[in-house]
Amino acid sequence: MKKTITILFILFGLLTISSQTAIDLTNLQTPALDETSGLIFYNNKIITHNDSGDAPNLYEIDKNTGAITRTVTLNNATNIDWEDITQDASYIYIGDIGNNSGSRTDLKIYKISKADYNDAGNTVTPEIIFYSYANQTDFTPNLNNNNWDAEGLISYDDKLLIFSKNWVDNTVNVYSIPKTNSEVHSAILESSYNINGLITGVDTTPDESIIFLTGYSSTNAPFMLTIHNIPNASLDLFSGIVSEKIPNIVSLGNQVEAISLFEITETKYRLYISNEKYVVTIGPITIPFPAKLWMIEIDTNTITLTAPNSDSDLALSLYPNPFHTLLNLSKRVDEIIIYDVSGRKIVEQHFVDELYLEDLNKGLYIAHIKINDSKLVRKIIKQ
């Protein structure tokens, strides 16, 4: 009995740690995008890719449905461990920079001309930029126990900057290489910061004045932070102002892998973030977390994360909760689908503001709700 109660408390904790700021837009197409690992926003399109094991493909996706709308294949490439994607005015860069064992000697970045990418065809032939770390001397395999893995990549002036994922000391190192493919470059250590976690995605504003980072802690809790006021002409990024790390930007269980700025308004920076598929097993209970696309906002004046407007669709409430028979919604919704904790669909209704659920067994359920252009997830309990 005690074991069952413990499992239920852990499960309840996973499902009740809610997103502070991120809006759940859609699940990504499964299984094709289960390993989404990088994002850019280019030509009003969201572009992503998977990490190791997939074909050398870029995917354009629909922000409303998560479906793939176009696939572009790189002719002379292999997806060994693609971890991030970035761009400048003329090129798209894909970082084959994942190095979980710390032993790779074939680290590279694929460089695609935007003119070629814009062509009607669905294949491109990239240049290849090879590199190694100037300060790495030991290549003994040490899975998830080394400081030579990396999952972040940005274009910064005339350099490409690689952000490490340090399994050993939980710091992040920033290395620079040129954007040319004339030789095997020696990546130079430019900046370091004790992030107390693992960095999984990076992006920057077009003027390169603000850098956005995502990652997760040792307990798999997702977080985000920003860097601004970086000294001019300096590659020591962390000599700028580093924001406080904001935990749980999405619900625990959703491992954030990528981030991309897509809009700047007078008051907000608006960014897409994505997470890969993740499955948690606790005793007899399995909880799947599908690959997802989210949106997050940052205040342009304070450079801090902001909560959604309380007057928006996200302010929807379900009451009473826990409930016995009748579950009320504070506004009429387009769709509500209720799942049990195993992911099985139990109830689906459309254009309602209340549900009679007298036949539902007692327990914990997850409600997926569509209202206007928003998608929400809420926990409900039947007593």
What do you see in this structure?
- By secondary structure, the protein is mainly beta.
- It has 2 domains: 14-307, Neuraminidase; 314-382, Immunoglobulin-like (Sandwich).
- Helices cover 5% and strands 50% of the residues.
- The chain has helices at 2-16, 114-117; strands spanning 23-27, 36-42, 45-50, 57-61, 68-74, 84-87, 91-96, 108-113, 123-124, 127-133, 150-156, 159-164, 172-178, 185-193, 198-204, 210-216, 222-228, 241-242, 246-247, 256-264, 268-275, 278-282, 285-289, 292-299, 318-319, 326-340, 345-356, 363-371, 374-382.
- Strands 6-7-8-10-14-13-12-11 form an 8-stranded mixed sheet. Strands 2-3-4-5-9 form a 5-stranded mixed sheet, with no helix packed on it.
- Strand 25 (318-319) and strand 26 form a beta hairpin.
- It starts with a helix and ends with a strand.
